[in-house]
Fold this sequence. Notes:
With 200 residues, the protein is α/β, with parallel strands linked by helices. It contains six helices and six strands, in the order E-H-H-E-H-E-H-H-E-H-E-E.
Amino acid sequence: MSESRQELWLIRQGETEWSAAKRHTGRTDVPLTPRGERQATALGRVLADREFTSVLCSPLRRARQTCELAGYGAVATVADGLLEWDYGIYEGRTTEDMRQEEPGWSIWSTSVPKGESLEQVAQRAHGVIAQALLAKGDVLLFAHAHILRILTACWLGLPPPAGRLFVLRTASISVLGYERETRVITQWNVSHEMKDGSSF
């Protein structure tokens, strides 16, 4: 497959208790909820007809569970570059909680004591992109919201803070590809869950 047709399929992991509570979940290794497990299984049905040259997965439990339940555990390569942002002192806290102390606070516009800078996360994202491009075919990535949002900004040639513009639901599918030689988003934040929480 030529590079101009290669696609990167981005999968945010299924729901966890912390994601449902909107807590910043970086390196805390929380598992999927039962709903998250159902979401991951549904992803497998949606992806079943696709062929991927390579499957990359974050080493964190929630991503690995999603990958396994979707049916790709046996063929996935663990990629440390797909670890979620290390939130340092903000780990486990919500934006609303932080804004009670510091109005207008955002993880996108602050330093992260005892964690990673946005630029450090972007450097990891560029490494993942380089690894994916070596596959010379479509690549499936199982990871987390912020690292995938930053990776998308990097793919598009945007500055890392532009990742704030790309919201991702749990267990969503997004696709990065090309229009001729230009890197583009071809699909974004597609969920395969019904309004009542069940899956198609």
